[in-house]
Amino acid sequence: MNLIINDKPAQSSVGQTIGKAARLNHSHVGYVCGGHGLCQACYITVQEGADCLAPLTDVEKAFLSPRQIAAGGRMACQATIATEGTVKVLSRPEEVRRIVFSNPFGLIAYAADMGKDTAQQIVPGVQNLIGRIQRGEMGGKEALGDMMESIQGAAGLVVEAIQQGPMALPIPFKDQIADVISKLPLPAISLPQIQLPQLPSISLPQLPFSLPQLPFSLPFLPQQSQAPAALEKVTITVQPPAKP
Predict the structure, then answer these.
(1) pLDDT tens, 220-238?
(2) Nearest Cα to 23, choosing from 157, 146, 138?
(3) What is the pTM (predicted TM-score) of this model?
(4) pLDDT of residue 54
(5) Cβ of 74: how many Cβ atoms within 10 Å?
(6) What pLDDT band is residue 193 in, cutting at 50, 70 and 90?
(7) Is-contact 18 87, C-beta < 8 A?
(8) Exposed, middle or buried by CB within 10 Å (0-12, 13-18, 19+), for 27?
């Protein structure tokens, strides 16, 4: 099976969902809801090999608009590889990144279309979710396992990117941002002055005994007052020596 995600080959096999193959290959596809089709973070556009995938699931029919389906939109957590062949898909973050690089103003129209699609599918999406909850399809050990697998896949993607360096993280326009930051002049940074509140004075009780005068002062004891120096008047009488 030849699966290509964001122009990068990914190992996969028949019977796997594209979402699971993406997790195992640490591809940049959303893993938020654990494969339950709730968050649509795993939205992908099938560019080639749509006939190798199983038909749309009820979840995809409920959450994807007719415009998205006509454009090749699928949910990676629901799209199962049915037959051998070549399947080429593009994830939503990568699609946004390419729009920004090729036509930044086109991002406004893209966001408007996605918002309209989401609003259009709120009612059928909620109805589908309620039905699955009533049938007990949203809980159990299998659901917990899917969630843990999603977390592990996301963590693996981050670890792999960090090992390649911070700029390898799957962040849109990271190269452009880094280039702009490197050209910015470094402004002088002045830290604000912090004024500490006035601490209340502490009055210590009078000790029942007096300490001798020390050649230094103790910060936790009241200072001993020294008696002011006083002059003492002394009368000196001088008499001449007696004659022999």
Answers:
(1) 445 555 556 666 666 666 6
(2) 157
(3) 0.56
(4) 97
(5) 26
(6) low
(7) yes
(8) buried
From CA 67, how far away is CA 243, in angstroms rounded? 142
- Residue indicated by tokens 């591809």: 27
Burial level of 137, CB count in 10 A (0-12/13-18/19+)? middle
Q: Which residue has the tokens 């038909």?
A: 55
Q: Which of 99, 78, 86, 94 is nearest to 28 (CA)?
A: 94
Percent of the residues in the chain that have a pLDDT greater than 70, as a whole number: 56
Write down the domain spans for the chain: 2-168
Rounded to the nearest 10 degrees, what angle do helices 106-120 and 92-102 cross at?
Answer: 150
Structure tokens at 192: 């604000």
Which residues have a Cβ under 8 Å from the Cβ of 136 and sit 6 or more positions away?
Answer: none
CA 25, 27, 29, 34 torsion-angle sign: positive
d(CA 113, CA 207): 81
Cβ atoms of 41 and 31 closer than 8 Å: yes
CATH architecture for the domain at 2-168: Roll (3.10)
**Burial class (CB within 10 angstroms; exposed 0-12, middle 13-18, buried 19+) of 24:** middle
- What is the separation, in whole angstroms, between the first and last Cα of the chain? 144
170: its two tokens? 């799957």
For Cα atoms 118, 125, 89, give the angle at the middle one, nearest 5 degrees: 60
